[in-house]
Design brief:
This protein is an alpha/beta fold. The chain folds into 2 domains: 122 residues, D-Maltodextrin-Binding Protein, domain 2, CATH 3.40.190; 95 residues, 3-Layer(aba) Sandwich (D-Maltodextrin-Binding Protein, domain 2), CATH 3.40.190.10. The chain is built from 9 helices and 9 strands. Strands 1, 2, 3, 4, 5, 6, 7, 8 and 9 form a 9-stranded mixed β-sheet that branches. Helix 3 crosses helix 8. The longest helix is centred in the first third of the chain and has 31 residues. It is globular. The chain starts with a helix and ends in a 5-residue tail after the last helix.
Length: 286
């Protein structure tokens, strides 16, 4: 069907010259109306985009964990770079799976007391003890401790078993809260407890005890710092103990998830060779 152009053009002219209720030409009024609609559409579009960004962002910040431990150089210590290799490994493993980690150092007995009361989330690091399983869960092993006796190099003492030490009235220095080797406590041997390994090594050098029960690397490292490592000798290895992190069950939060997450991060670090690399950086042989 064909239309006469003149009537249509005339209608357009009439339309453009009509006034809106506010006095503008209808064409101007329509333009303003169109601009309002466009602005509303843009608002809706940007609102949708912004809401999508909110959905894609994490709903919660990283969970913060408090790691409690004592000084156990060369494995970890508050004066060491990055607090030592074990803390460095612990932080990397937790960070890899979405946690932030803070570290607090205290004497070992205080560490255990605070952890059992739920005042910290992790203990770095512990050996297995059946008496603690009700309030802590152990991670996969991180490294291995070689536990035994140091003696003074000028001491002719040899190790022929616990009964022999008991018969010689040997005094052994131990650390409060540490797990002693099987048979030591029941052998009737005299022991003296201190709060940390450094005190025992000093007592050994000063002839206040005859043997110091300690990790081999720890004892050597502590005396090397003061240039006295040549004054002692390793007597005997009593046991090798896997060293774990303890996930505290009495702390707030999901300890089971933390355990699974840490083990997952640690496995990745082991696969990458990162754990071995860090231990070598600190001159530790596992």
């Amino acid at each position: 069907m064909l239309y006469d152009k003149e009537p249509i053009q005339e209608l357009g002219r009439l339309f453009n010259h009509r006034k809106s209720k506010r006095g503008e030409p209808v064409s101007q009024s329509l333009f303003l109306h169109f601009r309002k609609i466009t602005a509303m559409k843009l608002f809706v579009v940007f609102s949708f985009i912004f809401s999508g960004l909110l959905v894609s962002m994490p709903l919660h910040a990283k969970e913060k964990l408090l790691v409690c431990t004592n000084n156990y150089e060369p494995y970890y210590g508050e004066t060491m770079t990055d607090y030592g290799p074990l803390i460095k490994i612990t932080r990397l493993a937790f960070t890899m799976v979405g946690y932030d980690v803070a570290v607090r150092f205290s004497p070992w007995a205080r560490v255990l007391k605070d952890a059992e009361a739920g005042k910290c989330d992790i203990i770095a690091a512990v050996w297995f003890d059946t008496g603690r399983t009700n309030w802590m869960a152990l991670s996969d092993p991180i490294l291995t401790n070689e536990i035994g006796f140091y003696k003074r190099k000028d001491d002719a003492l040899v190790f022929n078993g616990y009964p022999d030490l008991q018969s010689r009235d040997v005094v052994i220095g131990t650390v409060k809260g540490y797990i002693n080797p099987t048979g030591l406590e029941t052998a009737g041997i005299k022991t003296e407890e201190v709060s940390e390994d450094l005190l025992n090594m000093k007592k050994l050098i000063n002839q206040r005890i005859r043997l110091a029960l300690v990790d081999r690397n720890v004892g050597w490292y502590l005396l090397k710092k003061s240039g006295q490592e040549q004054r002692v000798a390793w007597l005997v290895t009593l046991q090798k103990l896997p060293l774990h992190n303890a996930i505290i069950k009495t702390a707030k939060g999901n300890w089971g998830k933390r355990l699974v997450d840490f083990n997952r991060g640690l496995a990745v670090l082991n696969t990458q060779g990162t754990v071995s690399k860090i231990l070598k950086e600190y001159h530790i042989q596992d």
